[in-house]
Amino acid sequence: MELLLMVACMSLFGVAVTCAAFGAAAHPEQDVPAAQPAAEPARPIPPPRFFAEPVATPVTRPQVPIEALLLQIEGHVRLEQAAAESFLESPTSVLLHSRTLSPLVN
After folding, report:
1. Burial code of 67-94, b = ≥16 C-beta within 10 A, e = fewer?
2. Domain limits of the chain?
3. What is the pLDDT of residues 32-64, one digit of tens each?
4. S-S: 76 plus which of 15, 45, 67, 104, CB 3.0-4.6 Å?
């Protein structure tokens, strides 16, 4: 019974200390500084642009023909298949962690 009473008292003390620390940290100080800085002239606040229309930027990327992209992808697939076949012929950790020859690297 004494142990239970001791635990309850220590818990209550811990809660009181926590509340006091939180209260001191949560409320800003009410002290007013002695010298107020000179007030700047008021500038008009621009309207928020969160829902504004996006600014249209011209696309200046050169257009690549789809055939050229398909050829690059096919070459990449061939290189990856060749790497997989060479690994299956003689699996080693060096082949497993070696870099690919393909220019299309992640």
Report:
1. eeeeeeeeebeeeeeebeeeeeeeeeee
2. 66-95
3. 555 566 666 678 887 777 777 767 777 777 788
4. 104
